[in-house]
Amino acid sequence: MPDWQELVRRRLSGLRLDSNQKEEVHAELAAHLEESYEAFWAEGVPEPEALRRTLAQVADWKELQRKIRSARIRKDIMTNRVTQLWLPGLLTFALSMGLEAVVQKFGPRPIVLDLDKGTPVLMFYTAWLLMLPLAGALGAYLSKRAGGSVRMVLAASIFPVLPFAVVFLIAIPVGLVVNHNLEHHIVTAAYLSMSVGWVLAPGVALLAGGLPVHLLLRRRSSSQNAAIV
Amino acid sequence: MIGSGIKRGTAELAVLSVLQDGPLHGYELARRIEQQTNGALRFTLAALYPMLYRLEQQRWIRGAWETSANGRRRRCYRLTPAGKKKLSPLQREWAELFRALQRLTKVAHA
């Protein structure tokens, strides 16, 4: 019996979809061909004829490839972005902000970091940081479930820190350039401390939840595909 | 008034109608349509999957991987609430076409 998965993969080698979608199409079509072939075989059709009849279901693989792409691409890039990034990202953001509010109200006192006189203090809500992996995991799970790529999954899981990252990467450097009156050593210290507090530490915590979920789901998806072969 | 997309509509009607009875994977779906129409309607792989993917994008059906009784993983399709809602107008449209054709053939034979 042919390796149907390999056969479909070769014949649809030019299918331009993201890797998850492509694997899914390959697996599904291979399963269909396999069942057709087995049904012919069960009816007593000799092997070469069963194979011929099975493959006769697709007269033109290039045309099929084009039709599949056209049907699947209709779920356009905007829809993908919404389900794979914006929706899971905003839920992650809402959850992380909700957790922060709860921790601020009911949680233990934050660790206060006083870097230097005149520089802003930094408050680490350790309880919040410890809960953030949950939010990151949720974002990654929802994005992956919607067929998100690695980039989308990880972006959804660290979504809550992305706005702050943009502020710290754009607003502060621009402020440094524009406002010459600022004492640069103070600004630099503030910049670094706030970057750690608002972006780096929560980002790492979110990723600590998002990355394992991504790896776990990827492994599960690979084993499912292997089982289908 | 019969819609211009009636040809595509009948194929969609066949798929949605069969899925009304419960979830099926692609191969089963094609077999079921063939059996229920006594072979009058046949879906090859090349015709079936682009349509299933299109219906899925329209959110009339939803596909999900499931493990069958024999341990095989198959992508099963089920009708969504939107698909159920779509089915009635499609059935009416088809019935209208059928009646129109009947009237036409009666006139032709008269």
User: Can you name the CATH architecture of chain B?
Assistant: Orthogonal Bundle
Euclidean distance between termini CA atoms of chain A: 12 Å
Percent range for β-strand residues of chain A: under 5%
Helix/strand structural class of chain A: mainly alpha
The CATH superfamily of chain B is Winged helix-like DNA-binding domain superfamily/Winged helix DNA-binding domain
Q: Based on CA inertia axes, which overall geometry of chain B fits?
A: elongated
Structural class of chain B: alpha+beta
H and E string of chain A: HHHHHEEHHHH
Unreliable stretches of chain B (pLDDT < 50, length at least 5) are none
Mean pLDDT of chain B: 85
Largest sheet of chain A: 2 strands, antiparallel
Largest sheet of chain B: 3 strands, antiparallel
What strand order characterises the main sheet of chain B? 1-3-2
At CATH level 3, the topology of chain B is: Arc Repressor Mutant, subunit A
Distance from N terminus to C terminus of chain B (CA atoms, Å) equals: 25 Å
Question: What would you say this structure looks like, in words?
Answer:
The complex is a heterodimer of chains A (about 230) and B (about 110). The model of chain A is unreliable at about 225-229 (pLDDT under 50). Chain A has two domains: about 5-75, no CATH class; about 80-229, no CATH class. Helix content of chain A is about 75%, strand content about 5%. By secondary structure, chain A is mostly helical. Chain A has a two-stranded antiparallel sheet with strand order 1-2. Chain A is built from nine helices and two strands; from the N terminus they run αααααββαααα. With about 110 residues, chain B is α+β, with helices and mostly antiparallel strands. Chain B contains four helices and three strands, in the order αβααββα. Chain B has helices at about 5-20, 25-35, 45-55, 80-110, and strands spanning about 25, 60-65, 75-80. Chain B has a three-stranded antiparallel beta sheet. In chain B, β2 (about 60-65) and β3 form a beta hairpin. The longest helix of chain B has 29 residues, at about 80-110. Chain B is elongated, with a radius of gyration of 16 Å. The mean pLDDT of chain B is about 85. The interface of A and B includes residues 24 and 63 of A.
